Amino acid sequence: MQQWARCAGFFFLLILSFASSSVEAGCSCTSKACSCSGNDVSDLNGLLTEDVCTKDVIFTKLVLQEVPNLTNLPQGFSSLRESRCNGLQHLEVLELHQTGIQNLSSNLFQGLPTLKLLDLSNNSYLKSYRDGSFQNIGNTLVELVATDNLVHSLTKGVFAGLQKLQRLILGRNKIGYIEEGVFSSGCCEHLKELSLEGNILTVLEDTTFVGLSNLQKLDLRGNPLQRLSSRLFSPFASSLIHLLMSHDDSATFGGFNTFPNALFAKMSRLEELSMIELKITNLTAESFTGLTNLKKLSLRGNRLTVLPKGCFTSLPQLEELDLSANGMVCIPDNSEERYPKLRSLNLSQNGLTHLTRRSFSMLASSQPTPEFPRLLVNISSNPIKRIEPDAFCSFNGPVKLIIAPKGAKIPSWAVTDGWPDNPFALVGNGSIIQGLNHSGVVEGRPDAAALCGPEGHLFRAKILASSLYKGSKYTDKDIETSLNSECPWLVPDELSSWQLSKLGVPGLSRVPGGSDGSYALEEGSRIYLLIIVAVCITFLLAALTVIMCYRAWSRRATQKTAGDAEANVGNGGGSRSMEPLTTIGEVSEKQDLLERIRNGKVATTSDVEGREGSSERCTSRSGRRNSEPKGEEMEAMTAFGVL
């Protein structure tokens, strides 16, 4: 009985799985929209039946999804419209998802005179677009979406005829090559948004975006770009508003250390610039020249260690600055720079160790705005070792200071001992601190402005003499050295000397000279690395030389051993197998003498002696020492009249 129950349950589950894996063919329609699907459908006639395509129905939106056997539409939508679906002539939105279509024929979209939006996303078999595929809808199409496909390249005439296109979304494909002239061959003159995110683009040439003179948003996130040409963005320099770029810092391929100083020249309308995890290590005072209207800048996840002075002075409208997840170990003195509109500064996930009043001097002129009534400063996830009593006195107005994200562990340096006689309490009246305790936010002192002024020096001295600073492992000289440097720092315990040298942090025994000292130490580290490499190469060459010499000596020793063995055999000390060779030589010599006698040429004694000497010399070269003729040989030679 139990076996029958198990079998019945198995068949029931099998039926359920089959039912869930198959989609029944059919359409679900409203007065203006229709959505159709079916695993067994191989042509449009099987979906849009006469019950759906009545004469009175006028569709403005049609969705075809989960039709994997719909692989080819030789006649496109024109024949379908002529046969029964007259309402398709008013179609404005067409979506084709999860189909079996591999290529788009040139007449696929013929017969759709009012189409404005075409969505070809999630077609895993679609690998290419033929030239002129969208030409029949070029006079009306405004938006083309084709994400999550397998398209590898864009050829010159693929978008030909799309004169009114304003939005082109090609994200998450396999696009690695864009032919020159793709956006200038009768296409994209009015394009405002272009998305190429999630592809495999590595190099973009100066002529890649020629023709996009009205582009306002460009999305290049998720591409392993290796370099940026100085004239790459020039076709839309005067129109672009949003520029998004990103990669993966952990990826071994892609990214670049720096970019040309003139890259953003004349891009006066740009408001948002995102350059995330591109492995950028160097910035200059001219890096962002030309971005006079930039409001939001994100450099999150790069490899910046120290920011040069004047790096952001060309950004007078800057409101949000994200420097999180870099390798910065200090904040340089920017007291001479003014950023009155900067209302959000993210310094989380860096290597900041020492906070002073000059650390936030760039925020001294910041004024509240309706969007940011409080200045937002995030310093969470930093190995901070020392906070000076007046570290938060640079803020002008209320602040929201984030020490730790909500629900996260409170860092060891976030202490409230002696509250409100505490550096954090001097963030100012109306300010709040997030992450200082588990109960929620903490407010600053109402009299913080007065205590941060000249009359508050006694109060700050009292904090400095409290238990907060008695446990410091740093000497007064170390602290004074850090305070007097252009970039205050203190060495965190969890970083080794090699890691510190890579970050450009000088040791405690050396007075840092700002970026120059860090650069000098970095150059020294490189020299040491080159020396190590040179020693390794020298050792390798020496080892190869020893091996070659040993092989040559071994070869000579083998040859000498073989020669000695042959000589030993010739002296009779070897095997008797060599005797036939001697006999052959002797017989040959006898035959030569007989031939001379027959020809009437009798050898003289001197000739014989000379020949014997020559024979003796030959035998000596072959290693034979006993060259005297034997008795039997003497008798034979006498019988022939030789002797």
Automatic annotation (TrEMBL):
InterPro entries: Leu-rich_rpt, Leu-rich_rpt_typical-subtyp, LRR_dom_sf, SLRP. It comes from the Eukaryota. Keywords: Leucine-rich repeat, Membrane, Repeat, Signal, Transmembrane, Transmembrane helix. The chain crosses the membrane at residues 527-550. SUPFAM superfamilies: L domain-like. It holds the Pfam family LRR_8. Residues 561-585, 601-643 are annotated as: Disordered. Gene3D superfamilies: Ribonuclease Inhibitor. Residues 608-633 have a biased composition (Basic and acidic residues). The keyword Repeat applies. Residues 1-25 form the signal peptide. This is LRRCT domain-containing protein. It comes from Hydatigena taeniaeformis (Feline tapeworm).
